[in-house]
Amino acid sequence: MIIGTAKESYRADAALLTTRPQQVWTAILLAVLTTLPFVLNDYWLYLTCLLTINVIAATGLNILTGFTGQVSLGQAAFMAVGAYTVAWLEREAGTPFLLNLVLGGGVSAALGIVVGIPSLRVKGLYLAIATIAASFILHFVFVHWESVTGGNTGINVAPARFFGVELTTYFGLYWVIMPVTVLMVLGAANLFRTRIGRAFIAIRDRDISAEVLGIPLLKYKLMSFAIASFYAGVAGGLWAYFFRVVTPESFPFMASVFLLAAIIVGGMGTIIGGIVGAAFMTLTPELLRFVVEWLGPWVPNAATLLSPVRTIVFGALIIGFLVFEPQGLAEIIQRVRRFFRLWPFKT
What we know:
The protein is mostly helical. A hairpin with a 2-residue loop joins strand 2 and strand 3.
């Protein structure tokens, strides 16, 4: 018998944070996120902002692939749609950056619905190929629709403005990117406590049974594509404000592979999986760079080996997690939590 699981009201049972330790650790996390920009230098602030942008995109892909079971290799293309939308609005309309982010996500969601239409007929590898085809079509549009996208030259993006203040430093951008990331992650966590989120999970587990139970597959599959694409569009919009330039090469196909690897390593079908997976995959290249710099005096041309070594490490990580820990880092975290919950008693 587990003590403390009974709830006295429906509100208590539906609460996102159900235990006192969860509330305490959440408060500690928020305190850490608030103090980070005051203790980190520009380099680590840059990495933190980039990491949180990847968290948004990975969380969106996890909603589609991890929770709904629809494999996609076009998430980076939807990030590009959001980035180009934000860049165009900033250049032509000068609308507020928060509105630009929402519109960028909305345009990406609309295209996501179009790309998701084949999901009723195809699944698995065939659906992945369909999303790859969509990403190459969008790349063709980005290159040749020069009046809107600027072609290969791209679009320069004006700094984001908040109450008239230009956010040109990593310190200033952090206070925009981090709150948006927190809201998007909380939104995803709450989504799967609703009827829509549970329908996504039912489709992933057994789509035919879900349809027999009255869940309209096309509606919810398209909704999942739209939500995932909205997340990608918002992430792309933040990326545009962060790097201040958008070109067709800003979001290559390998970026979609990177995001898929992030949710595989982190743990598909878990909210924390998208977070830790994106963090792991973002920080791993930097750790490899530190290793290469350390080996520099002993290994000639160590820097030239970094790029192929990074690719090999990414591939090895994906294979290793699929073989030895298919549920990813999220399962390792859960095992650690269960250990300390029962410590010092044996399980």
